[in-house]
Design goal:
Largest interface: A-B, 79 and 79 residues
Order of helices and strands of chain A: HHHHHEEEEEHEEEEEE
CATH architecture of the largest domain in chain A: Sandwich
Largest sheet of chain A: 5 strands, mixed
Distance between the termini of chain A: 46 Å
Protein name (chains A, B): Intradiol ring-cleavage dioxygenase
Strand order of the largest sheet of chain A: 3-2-7-8-9
GO molecular function (chains A, B): dioxygenase activity
Keywords (chains A, B): Dioxygenase, Iron, Metal-binding, Oxidoreductase
Structural class of chain A: alpha+beta
Number of helices of chain A: 6
Low-confidence stretches of chain A: none
Mean pLDDT of chain A: 94
Number of domains of chain A: 2
CATH topology of the largest domain in chain A: Protocatechuate 3,4-Dioxygenase, subunit A
Number of strands of chain A: 11
Helix content of chain A: 10-25%
Family (chains A, B): Belongs to the intradiol ring-cleavage dioxygenase family.
Pfam families (chains A, B): Dioxygenase_C, Dioxygenase_N
Radius of gyration of chain A: 23 Å
CATH superfamily of the largest domain in chain A: Aromatic compound dioxygenase
Bound molecules: copper (II) ion, fe (iii) ion
Shape of chain A: elongated
CATH class of the largest domain in chain A: Mainly Beta
Oligomer: homodimer
Chain lengths: ~290, ~290
Amino acid sequence: MSTRDFNEHSITDAVVERFADTPDPRLKQIMQALVRHAHAFVREVDMSQDEWIKAIGFLTRTGHITDDKRQEFILLSDTLGISMLVDAINHRMPEGATETTVLGPFYVQNPPLKPADADISGGEHGVPLYVTATIAAPDGMPLAGAHVDVWQSDEDGFYDVQKPGDDPNLRARFTADQNGKVSFWTIVPKFYPIPADGPVGDMLKATDRHPYRPAHIHFMIDHEGYETLVTHLFIEGDPYLDSDAVFGVKQSLIVSLEDGAGAPPAAANKPSGTIWKRLDHNFGLKPAL
Amino acid sequence: MSTRDFNEHSITDAVVERFADTPDPRLKQIMQALVRHAHAFVREVDMSQDEWIKAIGFLTRTGHITDDKRQEFILLSDTLGISMLVDAINHRMPEGATETTVLGPFYVQNPPLKPADADISGGEHGVPLYVTATIAAPDGMPLAGAHVDVWQSDEDGFYDVQKPGDDPNLRARFTADQNGKVSFWTIVPKFYPIPADGPVGDMLKATDRHPYRPAHIHFMIDHEGYETLVTHLFIEGDPYLDSDAVFGVKQSLIVSLEDGAGAPPAAANKPSGTIWKRLDHNFGLKPAL
Ligand SMILES: [Cu+2]
Ligand SMILES: [Fe+3]
Ligand SMILES: [Fe+3]
């Protein structure tokens, strides 16, 4: 094929060939695959010039709304299921290891370290929830000293970083005890919408999709010799479990909240007679290679 | 398939299904095809989390360098051959109609209207070139009154808009006469690099690709009842004809410059004895549907 006469049939091979001298073989593989799939997409939909211009405009707006606080390209990747696909490919889990899901945009590095049974709700309104969790290897060996970062939205579906004020709230780090156990008080989380006032929100609207994520608590769990586990626990009964806007739900991550029985344990700030829920969960960490 | 249990195999169908209620059937088709090809790409290369983060960073930088004067997403589309593919799909040309190529980033709306035989070089250094062209229907009927916009780089490979000063230079609009003919003086253009100081330039460098486009003159030709023709004429002998950075070359658009014989025609500013070239070309316009 002459490289000076491209047509709609020959151009893909010509572009793939143009990447033949890429020194890094992995980059070469990625660029050539990108070209083939992008061209196949354009060809399959028989893209018009006008649609191409719209696509350029969409990407431009996505770039312009992205800043230090907002990552609209990640949101786009999330809402197209690409983030979860990458997550799944990179976390093929052995028996006994907890499944992963997306990190999400609301994690903050180095959350405040809290002692066992601390209340992380900071006085937020909501149904009190007492969480106990054990961190273990796939064979059940407890992982004492594991760092357990937790973060979640309030009862209205907002994270602290989305609200005025700088105080960390509903986020904390715990250290697992000799039995690999952590426990803390929080409140029952609520479903919430992803930021929907940008190009990704426009896409969701145009395609009749809602922006909601089912209620969940985020966990990031870390112990030497094991892969860092980034996951959520979703709350059974949430109306959006079957339609998470970012496709983050896995059956194994859905948990039921039990009604608390008797006086709230270890809670100085909960008068007896308080109605409360409890959540008990065991996390398994995958050994690092 | 449960929509609350995504894994690397089921997630693509789940995301495609999520677009099922898109009211506009064309948008639905495009989004579903986009998801399938994007997922197939990620799966084929077995994308790592780290590579995904790099891709997000690349798109973010591409968005941030894009402004009113610079469109890095178009440059990306151009260098991946996507622009030319879209062009080819949308301009399947009948016999007798000139082939199209990319518009490029240097077109300026409403260039200065010039009379026949005007010199558009504005005194730029270079080998004088006398261009004559006829504009016709595919059957040869001359298209009197056609607007012919021309623009090109100078002898150093720069367009006027890339240089200080506001005067339009090496760009003009001509009106075809009763025989569908236009003629003008210019200079022989030079190959030039696309802007290579941004993310797209980084990509070209990392893949051992050069940023050059072979020397060309841009034409945009317009006549009622016909599709607007956006094309170039490339100069035979250019060293980059076989490796245009944006894949814009078509064999039918490569022309030879002839040596000018005798005194330069209709050129008040060319002393006799001037060495000059000539280019004669016939353009065919495709009837509008
Ligand atoms: Cu594909
Ligand atoms: Fe969240
Ligand atoms: Fe050009």
